[in-house]
Amino acid sequence: MAVPLLELKEVTRCYAANDDGNPLTVLNGVSLTVDGGETLAIVGPSGSGKSTLLQIIGTLDRVSSGEVLLHGKNLAALDDLQLAEVRNRQVGFVFQSHFLLPQCTVWENVLLPALAQKGRVVNDHPAVPVTANAAPAESVEARASRLLKRVGLEDRLHHRPGQLSGGERQRVAVVRALINQPQLLLADEPTGALDHASATALGRLLIELNREVGVTLIVVTHAMDLARQMRRVLELKDGNLVTAA
Hints:
By secondary structure, this protein is α/β, with parallel strands linked by helices. It has seven helices and ten strands.
């Protein structure tokens, strides 16, 4: 039987005691299996732990107990350096805030992960991971050009983020997340800061890219229009995942 791309087994995440002296349990025995190429939306009210769950999947946070397996490898058992290697090689991130570097052009922002892999200095930034498996520069540049054309930004290569619309900035962030060919793309409220038209266009783009490049897509969102475009929709409720109504 094929090993799933991602598997969570009884994942719990607790934080330090709150005002009443009791620890805050955000995730309470979450189990989940995601196959390669799948699309999944996770919905739920603010404060339900959706972003925490996504950060644990993306190795930006650690579990209090349980297992997170990527291709059968238990990520919860890895040290920080090993987690960074997994994150840098296999995961791409898109956040509600685009986290583009304002002083860099679209072209430079997209290529930053590949440049960082070559040992060049890059500003410390949560959405610019240092990758360990980037292809040679020519191949990366060709892929950047192709993806930017694919998302309709071939005429914006030398623009800086401040010269772009919100939707355009998010499209740049998507290309940057895909530049090193991750197997898993995690999107945390990717349309939350966009108007309806831009949000609709970005949601459609994510689905199309999932089909075209085969990347597994997990989206955390309040937007049910976006969630319903995914193959599965799960709700995080009382610390557990349930099938959304």
